[in-house]
Amino acid sequence: MSDVKHLPRRATRRPAKQKTTILFKAGNLPSTPEELFRRVFWKSDFLAGEAHNFWKEVKKAEPSGLPIQAWKDWISKRGMSVGQFYNMIHGLVGAGFIEKRDSKWHMSEGFIQELEQMRKVYSSESGYEPRMK
Fold first, then answer.
1. Which residue from 58, 20, 54 is spatially nearest to 39, judged by alpha carbons?
2. Is domain 33-126 annotated with CATH 1.10.3470?
3. How far apart are CA 10 and CA 67, in angstroms?
């Protein structure tokens, strides 16, 4: 017999990778930042506008970042509920527009990297190369 004790397994929880559905409309290219944010927040024009404003605040705060505690001031000034703020952050992070580092919100390259990778895969498979207009 072995003297090895079998401990009960402990559940481990890894942070979930946030995901967001982005609306693609063939032939209807976004030409303004507002249209781009409406593609991410297609269920709510209100959240699209708020997300764009929050993203601009994060951009202004670079390179030091916007403290995550700023959410309390943000919702009180903007008339948002905690749930709306959570949905906005979830959308921004899931789309790759912002990321959390060292308890601060920072700009992220995730969105552009994802688009570039999709373009590469599609170009490789289809043989088409992008044409800039």
1. 20
2. no
3. 33
Q: How far apart are CA 20 and CA 97, in angstroms?
A: 11
Q: What is the model's pTM?
A: 0.79
Kindly report the backbone phi and psi dihedral angles of residue 93, in degrees, each rounded to the nearest multiple of 5, phi listed first.
-70, -45
DSSP the chain: ------PPP----PPPPP-------TT----SHHHHHHHHSTT-HHHHHHHHHHHHHHHHHTTT-EEGGGHHHHHHHHT--HHHHHHHHHHHHHHTSEEEETTEEEE-SHHHHHHHHHHHHHHHHH-------
- Break the chain into its structural domains and give their ranges: 33-126
User: What token pair was written down for 10?
Assistant: 């402990």
- Tens digits of per-residue pLDDT, 33-46? 999 999 899 899 99
